[in-house]
């Protein structure tokens, strides 16, 4: 139950950053063990004049592969959430205001940490979309 609240807070921060035009990117990292799925990257795109996102899965199964799929923005949480705790222990939201990290510890308890921003500029696709 506690994780559901933390996950909800984190995805609210993701939505807020998109709405406010501060979103730079979202990454899932730090896996348990050595799974084939190494990283997941979320980036924004505009398709048919609608803001959407790509979910790019970095896979290593003897050779490196990328699998990218396109989704409606309202499905971001439902598309990303299943990968949290298995296999990913970290979700990093990069915004122009803060880097927001959701970490899941060994006891599978999630927490959110905010740090100074890595990116000075928001995702150019988002800026163009908001200014259109």
Write structural notes for this entry.
This protein has about 130 residues and is of the alpha+beta class. It is built from 3 helices and 7 strands; from the N terminus they run H-E-E-E-E-H-E-E-E-H. The protein has a 7-stranded antiparallel beta sheet with strand order 4-3-2-1-5-6-7. The protein is globular and about 45 Å long. The mean pLDDT is about 95.
Topology:
Layout (H helix, E strand, L loop, with lengths): L1 H19 L2 E9 L5 E11 L2 E11 L3 E9 L3 H5 L7 E8 L3 E6 L5 E6 L8 H8 L1
Antiparallel strand pairs: 1-2, 1-5, 2-3, 3-4, 5-6, 6-7
Features:
132 residues, alpha+beta, seven-stranded antiparallel sheet, 3 helices
Tell me, briefly, the overall form.
Answer: globular
What proportion of the residues is helical, as a percent range?
Answer: 10-25%
Task: Report Rg.
Answer: 15 Å
Strand line-up of the largest beta sheet:
4-3-2-1-5-6-7
Please sum up the structure shown.
The protein is α+β, with helices and mostly antiparallel strands and 132 residues long.
